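Last lecture ended with a question: if I hand you only a sequence, what can you say about the shape of the protein? Today we answer it with a concrete record. The protein is Acetylornithine aminotransferase. Below, first the input exactly as provided, then the predicted structure, then a couple of comments.
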Amino acid sequence: MTVMSGVSRATFDEVMVPNYQPVAPIPVRGQGSRLWDQQGREYLDFACGIAVTGLGHAHPKLLAVLTDQAARLWHVSNVMTNEPALRLARRLTELTFADKVFFCNSGAEANEAAFKLARRWGNAQDPRKHTIVSFYNAFHGRTLFTVSVGGQAKYTQGFEPLPGGIRHAAFNDLASLEAVMDDSVCAVVMEPVQGEGGVLPATREFAHGVRALCDRHRALLIYDEVQTGNGRSGSLFAYEQYGVTPDVLTTAKGLGGGFPIGAMLTTDALAGVLAFGTHGSTYGGNPLACAVAEAVIEELARPELLRNVGERAAQLSTGLVEIGRRHGLFGATRGLGLLIGAPLAEAWKGRAKDVVNAALAQGLWLLVAGPDVLRFAPPLNISAADVDEGLRRFDRACATLTQAGAG
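The predicted structure:
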């Protein structure tokens, strides 16, 4: 059924700041692994709003909790606390290494909090201990501080002068990291899997080596699990699979299942650094967001859900390898859990967006991770049948592209 809303993709160009280039279809409804646009066309969602709607669209438990909380209490700010925030914080500490939680609204805000904590902790040790180390091609958010830490020049060009006291090393290269480490470093921040940087997982050796270097130089280890967290990796958080415990962990995206919320998790020993008045967020710990996130966490904590992530990840990866072999667009896949990257073959490099658009034409939403890598991030509770259907649609998209290329 066509939706007559009076707005279209052209409206975006008329009234919105042009920092985005959204595709033409405008989704108006979602259910499970599927979306429908204004014209009523159906799509399979293997993008999840950039790995956010981990339980799919319109999940009945999330709807029920949101509706119930909306009738009770929406907002009180942080001059008071509220029950959903306290319950969610308690549950997160029960399920992780952390003792304390700070709530905010996004991954960038969670990372800002982590970087401020690290700087304040370092200053308390020694005023010269203020350097933050990150990795090239990392992504930690879009604020000026977080893009500066991120190590991707395309996000910082034109915004100079940039914040100082930041160094970068090559990912999965311990020698490169060791070369920039000294006792002025207050923290090293890393993604267990570089998401925007190409869906590139850390090796186990590298992860353990980073922890050891942090310990040697008395630096905090911050894990950015904005994208890998909340079941996306196949465990609640990816650090569990690496056998490395960070000092600080940031998360967002899938935590709210689509409702904006972020969190920074840390230990008792470090939490006191952010004493009264040192940091804050008007909306952080909002009752609506926390009530939904609490329901999300309870779903993610179910063994059956995490088992499904592993099974569907294997199914999707196997299917992608077959499609890649058949059409020659890409080779081996990489990633963790249901965050899967497919690096394009040499002849197709730079054309990731073309592949995404071809998939969209076949009724499948995908993502890019830079110009050379396709990114697949379907719902964590997706069925085997929907994975198979998504692979069929993607196969048709690849066939259309290769036939056009051959012509």
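Comments.
1. The chain has a mean pLDDT of 95.
2. The radius of gyration is 21 Å.
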